[in-house]
Structure prediction request, 333 residues.
Amino acid sequence: MGQSLAGLTTMRVGGTPAALIACHTREELIANAQKLWASGENWVVLGGGSNIVFADEPNELHVLQVLTTGIEVLGDGHVRVQAGENWDAFVEHAIDLGWPGVESLSGIPGTVGASVIQNIGAYGQEVAAVVRQVEFLNYQTGELQILWKNECEFGYRDSVFKREALGGSAAKGGLTGIVTWVEFEFHPDLPAASTALMRNRRQEVLGQRAAKGMVLDAKDHDTWSCGSFFVNPFVTESFARTLPEEAPRWPDEHDPARVKLSAAWLIENAGVQKGFALPGSHASVSTKHALAITNRGDATAQQVLELASFIQVQVANRFGVQLTPEPNLIGFN
Prediction:
């Protein structure tokens, strides 16, 4: 009997895959990926397991687990980090060395490789701002390539790497494959590079995230989640005027005709309150934050998906807005 994926994800759901392939070095990761791809089997990459929900029966799935580590200082503010490095540990390391630009991304679970796929962001910072280049193993060619920042096509919780499909069929405009390392570019000579200020900011952010159940704690079921389950939606400015005046909204810095809405506000005002659960389900909305779906101890992946679907329907019926899940949903029919 193989290992269940539930123990490898922050949502703590998911069955046993066909194979779990642990890759401890970049070389192992590349070799195992190329071998798996040649076999034609269904596959997926697993980092920290914080932004993924596996199905209860992913029977045909082969999982490449990225456990690679290493931080290399290249000079001129350039730092190369292996994809399997823990993201929050890297943030703490960056602060200790006076590298500004990621301190507000403290407490986000997952790995460095996953950070660029999702283009993680919080409290006014995004990882894209400090990315210089990415090494990528391309599924279509089987070859390594270097992608510069502009080629990563970063957007709001999006990148060229996220627009991919399981099993090697790239979605339109996307790339399918594996991030092997990320090179960052920091500017430690800037005035903002005060280590004391960055440490204070880290503690402030960790406190804010903990209050929302967004800092992992094995004893707190509100943290048995993927963090925010839905992305904040963008709508046209004209559509936003049809919403209640008190609905929070922010201008889209890239498109003046669009505004960003608060998914959490939409959920609560559609009648789905903190702590809500469907009858008989062990998945519920967090008691601390309406945007998180949580596992209360023995939830199934199907229960998580049912609650997510229910929330989407409630918001769509009440406000005409379709919420998009933020985590990757893998192995579901």
Q: What stands out?
A: Residues 301-319 form the longest helix (19 residues). Residues 1-211 form a domain with the Uridine Diphospho-n-acetylenolpyruvylglucosamine Reductase; domain 3 fold (CATH 3.30.465.10). The two ends are 23 Å apart (CA to CA). The first strand starts at residue 19 and ends at 23.
